[in-house]
Design a protein that fits this description.
Structural class: alpha+beta
GO molecular function: phosphatase activity
Number of strands: 34
Helix content: 25-40%
Strand order of the largest sheet: 7-6-11-10-9-8
Radius of gyration: 45 Å
CATH class of the largest domain: Alpha Beta
Number of helices: 21
Pfam families: GAF, GAF_3, HATPase_c_2, PAS, SpoIIE
CATH superfamily of the largest domain: PPM-type phosphatase domain
Largest sheet: 6 strands, antiparallel
Protein name: PAS domain-containing protein
Shape: elongated
Strand content: 25-35%
Keywords: Hydrolase
Number of domains: 5
CATH topology of the largest domain: Phosphatase 2c, domain 1
Distance between the termini: 120 Å
Length: 875
């Protein structure tokens, strides 16, 4: 004869196995069948694993209590699965580890009876566990223990029996109560128990003794103020009863706190063993009674277990748990069951102010019919739930969360269910807060690591486009599913869409096209994330228009693309979208847009991290802008210092190679020039200004323009340099000393070339003859910019056909690798290998030798000027 039945269905996911174990354990413990719980849980675990993990189908689990035992049935939707058959000679099942075999092998070993039943769509495995033989009236028993393992109590245990009527007044007080607390019965009868009870203000406690007296059963600790004024800690067991006339009252059994073992009920499912009594408090921990043991070690698992237990405890259709933000102004959905959790996860609602507020967060509340008060619980809007009970989670008086259980029918819950749920919330509040703080600490450590890495990456580039790309790549998919960056050129300009990124590359183009069609978000310089509905509204309007257009065309004229692209884009931007201002140096330079796909929300911690990132990214982006502007100005000025197009010199090959040291520099301290002076005469120069950068470039400009002007005025080489020396000294503190090789070149009718050169402190020019010999083509003289009175002279050099004149700056000869230096001798060795080469080939070979001399890039400016008189055969 069947006396009770319970059933549940579990989805084909891994966590369903644990949920099925919990369901069977709670069901059998609720029926008082603790003796067979372990065997039933083991067998159920194996059979449900076969269904949801191996077969990949839902599993229907039913517990049926009869007169002789319990039958558990597990059905799946995979009737084709193989059933291990017994051999004729015994009960051998083959390999116990093979898929599908071990569960039935365990059934044969543990169950009194078992079997497999098939239908066209289901396969059902069942097992029957017989009730154990035990003395009549025995419900539960523990093993015999040695005396040292028994709980400690006084020689005479006193159990105070106090009866409280329906008004909360004491109606009975026994002798043990008088002995424990010092009050004779006539002194306390007729007084409220609340006058004597010292209810503890422990973390998470939200219910007083008056409410506890209304519960059908309650156990716990509080204090009784004795006749001497002291509070005596007691452990109490309350039982709500009624007399023959139906009048309710509560019987309270009270013992000293240290003797709690006398009254304390054993933990459901806990095995009594020989553990030391010092561990009994932990073994009967109220949190584990509610949440189950072992408790999940992660916050999400703990919260999910909590909502499932709360739903089952109140026989609800759905349950949810919200955690408060640090300032307690909002609640964030962290776990739910029976609700569209993917849509609601991390959604936030205000606690007390504004529209859609969560007004019942700080106190227990019961809503008998949500249709009468729409929006009272924002989380349940449009979910079909009609009644709900909500209770706060509090730690040390601070709101840390809210727990709710809802049902699809109205008037499902009363104040009694609210008190029961509040007690459950009090049991778990501290554990949830500890787990939340642990997760928060882990997230903060990860956030710090993320920000450090992000700062390093952003500081590693001064390129604007690369900075934009880094901003997007650091947020997707770590913080958001998609990202867009708007930049603002100046205060009068409209924001410009500069970069778009989506975690699915196929959706980037559609997302970019959508954002280009809508107005950018308003520029707000205040910090913090704010919501933006523009992409969502535009995407869904476009998807609706596309769908209607495709339907109106009919099947014969349906466009090949269909509404898929629009719908995909709408889905991509259908979740929460937030705008973060990019503010640098008190100016809005752009906006960072972060978005989630359909019905998803941001975690508060991720938004705070995104705000930190946006501040760093804004400064990096502004630095890149300033650097780009400075580089553009610098390069524009530097280009003005470079000589115009190199003139063609009849009968002479000329090649110049110039390399300025330093990132972004086109002109440094080294310079060159080649220009016509008059018919048949050309001036050339190669020099080195002390230092590099803009200051050296300024002297470069002065020298180049002064040389051209003075030479064309008819001054000879020494006069040109002497006047240039005076001009440099006139610069005062801005002056730089200058080494300079200046010469004049006259191509001759016989194919040779005559040069008149002045070498003012510069590396000497080298002459390469056809026979491969190399010699200096000038003598050293004082450099410019140091002394006022210079006496310079020029020297004449004749280049025969095939000869080469090589002029370099000290960036070539002073090329270093550790303690080694290329030097004049090294340069001569390179030049001796250039016999017969053109001027361009000579210059290229010298440059290649300089670059190969050391692994590091050159640290000094370099200029190479090669002039060669070609042989008749060359021309």
């Amino acid at each position: 004869m069947i006396t009770a039945r319970a059933a549940a269905t579990f989805e084909p996911v891994g966590r369903s196995v644990a949920a099925a174990r919990t369901f069977v354990r709670d069901t059998l413990q609720g029926w008082g069948l603790t003796d067979i719980v372990d065997d039933a849980v083991v067998l159920t675990s194996e059979l449900v694993t076969n269904a949801v993990v191996h077969a990949g189908t839902t599993a229907d689990v039913a517990c049926i209590r009869a007169d002789t035992g319990v039958r558990v049935e597990v059905a799946d939707r995979y009737p084709e699965r193989e059933v291990p058959l017994q051999n004729n000679g015994g009960h051998h099942f083959g390999n116990p580890d093979r898929e599908g075999g071990r569960g039935l092998l365990l059934c044969a070993a543990l169950a009194g009876r078992w079997g497999v039943e098939y239908t066209a769509t289901h396969k059902q495995v069942w097992f029957h566990l017989d009730f154990p033989d035990r003395p009549a009236g025995t419900r539960a028993a523990g093993p015999a223990l040695p005396s040292s393992a028994l709980p400690i109590a006084d020689a005479r245990v006193r159990v105070g029996v106090v009866q409280v009527d329906s008004s909360g007044l004491i109606s009975a007080w026994n002798d043990d109560a008088q002995e424990l607390f010092g009050y004779p019965s006539e002194q306390v009868i007729g007084k409220p128990l609340t006058d004597l009870a010292a209810w503890p203000h422990t973390p998470g406690t939200g219910t007083g003794v008056a409410e506890a007296l209304l519960l059908s059963r309650w156990e716990g600790s509080y204090g009784i103020r004795g006749a001497d004024g002291r509070v005596a800690p007691v452990y109490a067991s309350h039982l709500r009863i009624r007399d023959a006339e139906g009048e309710p009252s509560t019987v309270c059994l009270l013992v000293r706190e240290r003797e709690r073992a006398v009254l304390q009920s054993p933990m459901r499912g806990a095995n009594v063993d020989t553990a030391d009594t010092s561990d009994r408090g932990q073994a009967t921990d109220a949190f584990e009674v509610f949440i189950g043991s072992p408790a999940p070690d992660d916050l999400d698992g703990l919260l999910q277990r909590t909502v499932e237990r709360a739903r089952d405890m109140l026989d609800g259709d759905a349950a949810y748990l919200l955690l408060a933000t640090d300032d307690e102004t909002e609640l964030e959905v962290r776990a739910s069951t029976g609700l569209p959790s993917a849509r609601q996860r991390f959604a936030r609602v205000p606690v007390e102010a504004g529209t859609g507020r969560y007004g019942s967060a700080r106190m227990p509340a019961v809503h008998e019919d949500l249709s009468a008060v729409p929006g009272a619980v924002p989380l349940l809007v449009n979910t079909g739930m009609r009644s709900v009970v909500t209770v706060p989670l509090k730690v040390e008086g601070r709101l840390t969360g809210s727990l709710g259980v809802a049902a699809e029918s109205p008037a499902r819950y009363s104040n009694e269910e609210a008190l029961r749920l509040q007690f459950a919330a009090d049991r778990i509040a501290l554990a949830v807060e500890r787990a939340r703080l642990t997760e928060l600490e882990r997230l903060r450590r990860g956030s710090l690591s993320f920000l450090v890495e992000a700062s390093d990456l952003l500081a590693g580039t001064l390129d604007r486009d690369q900075t934009l790309a880094l901003m997007a790549q650091m947020t997707v998919p770590t913080l958001a599913s998609w990202c867009a960056v708007y930049t603002v050129a100046d205060q009068a300009s409209e924001p410009e869409l500069s970069y778009v990124l989506h975690e699915d590359e196929d959706r980037i183009d559609g997302l970019k096209a959508l954002l280009m069609k809508i107005d950018p978000p308003e520029q707000v310089p205040t910090g913090g994330a704010r919501s933006w509905s523009g992409p969502y509204d535009a995407a869904h309007a476009a998807a609706l228009r596309t769908s209607l257009r495709s339907l109106s065309l009919g099947d014969s004229a349906r466009p090949s693309s269909g509404p898929g692209a629009s719908l995909a884009t709408a889905s991509a931007v259908g979740g929460e979208t937030v705008v973060l201002p990019l503010v640098a140096r008190n100016r809005v330079i752009g906006m960072l847009i972060l978005g989630k796909p359909t019905d998803e929300h941001f975690r508060q911690e991720n938004l705070e991290l995104a705000e930190d990132l946006s501040r760093r990214a804004a400064l990096a982006l502004d630095n890149a802008r300033l650097y780009s502007e400075r580089t553009a100005i610098s390069q524009s000025l530097q280009r003005s210092l470079l000589p115009p197009e190199q003139p063609e010199v009849p009968g002479v090959e000329v090649e110049v190679i110039y390399r300025a040291a330093g990132e972004g520099n086109e002109v440094g301290g080294d310079f060159y020039d080649l220009f016509p002076i008059r018919d048949g005469a050309y001036g050339f120069a190669i020099g080195d200004v002390c230092g590099t950068g803009p200051e050296a470039a300024a002297v470069t400009g002065l020298a180049r323009h002064a040389l051209r002007l003075l030479a064309r005025e008819g001054f000879g080489g020494p006069a040109v340099l002497e006047r240039l020396n005076a001009a440099i000294l006139d610069e005062g503190a801005r002056s730089r000393f200058l080494t300079l090789l200046y010469g004049e070149l006259w191509p001759q009718h016989d194919g040779s070339a005559v040069l008149k050169v002045v070498c003012a402190g510069h590396p000497l020019p080298l002459r390469l003859r056809q026979d491969g010999s190399v010699e200096a083509a000038a003598e050293p003289q004082p450099l410019l910019g140091v002394m006022e009175d210079l006496e310079l002279y020029e020297q004449t050099v004749t280049l025969a056909p095939g000869d080469v004149l090589l002029c370099v700056t000290d960036g070539v000869t002073e090329r270093r690798e550790g303690t080694r230096m290329l030097g004049d001798d090294g340069l001569i060795d390179v030049l001796t290998t250039c016999t017969g080469l053109t001027a361009g080939a000579v210059a290229a070979r010298v440059l290649r030798a300089v670059e190969r001399f050391a692994a590091e890039p050159p640290s000094d400016d370099m200029a190479i000027l090669a002039m060669r008189v070609p042989e008749p055969a060359d021309s």
